Fold this sequence. Notes:
The complex is a heterodimer. Chain A is of the alpha+beta class. Chain A is built from four helices and twelve strands; from the N terminus they run ααααββββββββββββ. A six-stranded antiparallel beta barrel of chain A has the order 1-2-5-4-3-12. In chain A, strands 6-7-8-11-10-9 form a six-stranded antiparallel β-barrel. By secondary structure, chain B is mainly α. Chain B has one domain (3-158): Arp2/3 complex 21 kDa subunit ARPC3 (Orthogonal Bundle). Helix content of chain B is 79%, strand content 0%. Chain B has helices at 3-19, 21-24, 33-45, 47-65, 71-85, 95-121, 129-164. Chain B is globular. The relative contact order of chain B is 0.14. Chain A binds chain B through residues 10-11, 14-15, 18-19, 21-22, 24-27, 31, 34-35, 38-39, 42, 45-46, 49-50, 52-53, 56-57, 60, and chain B through 15-16, 18-20, 22-23, 47-48, 51, 55, 60, 63-64, 67-71, 73-74, 77-78, 81, 120.
Amino acid sequence: MWEKWKKHLSIIISIFVLLVLMTLTIGSHYHSSIASFADRVFYPIQVVFKSLNNLGTSALENFRDFRNVQKERDQLLLEISKLKKLQIDNEELRRENSSLTQALDYQRQHPEISFAFSRVVMRDPSDWYQEITVDIGSINGIKEGMTVVAIQDRQIGLVGIVEEVFKYTSRVHLLVDPDKNVAAAAQVANKIMAPVLVEEPPNYLNPDPDATDPEPSTPHDIIWYQGVIEGSIQDQGTMEMIYITHEAEIELGSPVITTGLGGYYIPDIPVGTVTKLKKDAFGLQKRAMVKPYIDSSRLKDVMIITNPLPVKIAGQ
Amino acid sequence: MKSKNYLIIGGVIALIQVYMGQLLEVNGIVPDLILVYIICVALLSGHQTALVLGLVIGFLYDIFFNDFIGLYSIFYTTIGYFVGYFRNNFFYSNVQIALVFSVLATIIKFMFFKILKVIIFSNFEMVNILVIFYTIIYNIIICIVIHYILVKLQTRVENERKQYR
């Protein structure tokens, strides 16, 4: 029996001694004095390990900070992308607002003309200058043959005519399309004229104190030469005016407007300005290259003139 | 390897546990390096070495970090002794045995400390089971590392000894 327990004598004694120590030190001041002595003895080792710990902790904190910074960066990037989207939306709304304000202002200046405002919703990418689809249709009173105009940079200009009307959308044939040959009778002035711009709406928030009323326009001795305007084959997006008499003395930059003849377009709609003049093969007629006021490639909002309608003479 | 060397390594591990435990902390869980080390030493070197190791480290731990002497020293001494005593029943250099003992010792530690706290301080606060679970997992990971290092060290020392002979 003794032999059996003798083997475990070491652990029995250890536990016994520790239990005695435990009983002695629980709730007594012995422990604190032993602890303070041990603390003094082990102080150098403590210093070394504490500094190592501080080093490791600061490295760990730096790493955590780095991860936090990465997370914050990701969040900020997300926020920036959201803000950019918002900015783009704002820009779009501002542009749309400006365009519609100008259109309304034009309508105020020309009360005899009625407009239907619409937005370009579809465009054939294979033939950009052929046609556009707008978001109003027969339900809005749109009819085939109505003249379509737009305002860009405060300048109104001809866009085309309504070719096909559906219930909610309409297809507009662009004037700059050379394929269909829907030419417009037009007239070109012999002189450069002051551009007829849509008036800027008054800025009530920040009125300009130096602003003065524009000078009243003086009557000019203008001669209008008639011709036919069609989309240019060579330079897409521009137009050519043909059948101009060879006697016509036209300055570059002269305005081109519709005559209303032929019954396709209503008269006096600005089309563009002359950029180049050349004679045809036999020198009998002149041909003018016309840069349209409206850049068809950046059409977003258009106005359909619902009244007056182009007048077709019986038999045309 | 000599018991003296185990004691030195144990001292270093105890200092790491005490002063650098913050670096090992993951979500409030800290592994018990000393416990794992004592188990590994007990399996590799026997119950007498483990007893001395448990007694010395546990005693120092009690002096520095406990309100009284005996809690850690009794636990580490007893665990080291019993694991070392039963080592011959297993293929003790096998890491799985060390892992099993680590798991059991971790559970016993929590129970032992709880019982002692109840007896001495009448502290009936419940122990969070999840804390025990994650500590066990952490101890298992630490055990694999410490066991691997100790086995490598022991093999190296034995090879050197054979060369001298």
